[in-house]
Amino acid sequence: DVKVTQSSRYLVKRTGEKVFLECVQDMDHENMFWYRQDPGLGLRLIYFSYDVKMKEKGDIPEGYSVSREKKERFSLILESASTNQTSMYLCASTEWGGPNTGELFFGEGSRLTVL
Amino acid sequence: GENVEQHPSTLSVQEGDSAVIKCTYSDSASNYFPWYKQELGKRPQLIIDIRSNVGEKKDQRIAVTLNKTAKHFSLHITETQPEDSAVYFCAAKEPGANNLFFGTGTRLTVIP
Question: Which tens digits make up the pLDDT trace of A50-96?
Fold first, then answer.
């Protein structure tokens, strides 16, 4: 089974703090994603990466950056956390051309609260 | 880019009744349409998908239909059960794209 692991389930940070959310997948997937989930707004794509060191902006990249130094790890960085970044963050991975083509495998989510 | 709209945002049905969730997409080139189910406190998981060369696909009580001309696709759940209660997301993918475009989700409640 594919496993996508997010480092923290719950985080509480203060405004202005730097926040790192880590995601690791164990299926050698090339594509990894960071989504933000808010009630009524669904899953909004922040950034995605289709290869090591490659990244592309999603729908809401402002205030976020990402890092993909190794294939299995995709990090989301909030340089200076703000209260409007309080949300659930979901990481996902997939291999478009693989045996489970098209299936996104999600992590359990990281609920971030910024005070 | 692609734009996916999903309706309704909430849906309540009696146990045993059918539920239908509809999505429309904007890019006629999109060719892959998955549906994800997210139970309370859990991660979204793929429940069914359809590709543009097929008009309908069934998996037990779940079916998805695709109308390419009208650019819409629907999820049908028959004989609903309380464990079907969840948030359902539709999505669409354009050929060659590396990401999915999600709808805003439908919260389905099955009333026992």
Answer: 999 899 999 999 999 999 999 999 999 999 999 999 999 999 999 87
Name the closest residue on chain B to residue A50, using Cα atoms.
Answer: B98
Burial of A58: CB neighbours in 10 Å, binned 0-12, 13-18, 19+: buried
Distance CA A70, CA A93 (A): 14
The alpha carbon of residue B16 is apart from the nearest alpha carbon of chain A, in Å, by 27
Q: Tell me how crowded residue B31 is: count the other CB atoms within 10 A of its CB.
A: 18
User: Token pair 């189910």 is at which residue?
Assistant: B37
Nearest CA in chain B to A105: B45
Interface test with A, best of B98, B104, B106, B107 (most A CBs within 10 A): B98
d(CA A75, CA A67): 5
Q: Map tokens 């389905």 to a residue.
A: B108
Beta carbons of B32 and A102 less than 8 Å apart: yes
Strand order in the sheet with A65-70: A4-6, A19-25, A73-78, A65-70
Smallest Cβ–Cβ distance between A43 and the set B49, B89, B93 belongs to: B89
What residues are paired with B56 via a beta bridge?
B65
- With CB atoms and an 8 Å threshold, state whether B93 touches A102: yes
Residue with tokens 């650019």: B71
State which amino acid sits at residue A78. Answer: L
Q: Closest Cα partner for B50 from B38, B61, B41, B59?
A: B59
User: pLDDT tier at A2 (50, 70, 90 boundaries)?
Assistant: low
Q: Does B104 touch chain A (CB under 8 A)?
A: yes
